[in-house]
Amino acid sequence: MEQGYRRSAGSARGEARRQALLESVTEDLAEHGLVDFSLRRAARAAGTTHKVLLYHFDGVDDLLVQAVDRLRARRIDNSMAAAALRAGEGTLAARIEALWPVLIDPRSGHRVLEQSTGLAMYDPARYAKFGREATSQYLPPLLALCPPDWSERRRTEVAELILATLRGLLLNRVIGADPASVEAGFAALLRALEREEASP
Predict the structure, then answer these.
(1) How far apart are CA 65 and CA 42, in angstroms?
(2) Which residues, other chains included, contact 42 with Cβ-Cβ below 8 Å and sequence gap of 6+?
(3) With contact defined as beta carbons under 8 Å apart, do 43 and 50 qualify?
(4) pLDDT digits (tens, 9 = 90+) for 11-58
(5) Keywords on this record (predicted)?
(6) Is residue 15 within 8 Å of residue 97, measured between CB atoms?
(7) What is the full DSSP assignment across 25-50?
(8) Residues 131 and 120: beta-carbon distance below 8 Å
(9) Cα–Cα dist 15/100, whole Å
(10) Could you give the CA distance from residue 199 to residue 71 in angstroms, rounded to a whole number?
(11) Mind listing the domains of the chain with CATH numbers?
């Protein structure tokens, strides 16, 4: 962190300002992605200066991590709301099918979230948190979608399978894979879930 700047001290007014700045930066990130992300670009998006951002955040990495976390939380909330609409159908496959359109909606910031996974692979010393944070944010809701009568181990295994498969399919979409092949892969995941639910 640059000398002479500090994070806001935690007053209600300071926290409200910090949240407003973070929301503006998050919206810019969702629209423009991670390429060329910098403190100065974030400041322009928030209508302020980089010095003000350094007062409220511990630097560009702290700001980036918090904005990505916010995008991911928003995506998860929207996905789970879509899945909840299918809860009456009773199947895990139906709930996963319902959340897919939310995951691939451009408004979800999906490109940024997949780019952040790439950063975690490219520079794990600096960006490993993107991988860890994604897993810790996605797994609990996926576990909650699994049938409650399953054992904890079975729910964990299936939730891990869903997460890994969805990550792979979403990354394939970002790198330009044939959309039909991505949809075929997703359909195969749904069939696998149907078989899993049908087994004792």
Answers:
(1) 13
(2) 25, 28, 50, 53, 60, 63
(3) yes
(4) 788 888 899 999 999 999 888 888 888 899 999 999 999 899 988 998
(5) DNA-binding
(6) no
(7) HHHHHHHH-STT--HHHHHHHHTS-H
(8) yes
(9) 34
(10) 36
(11) 12-198 (1.10.357.10)
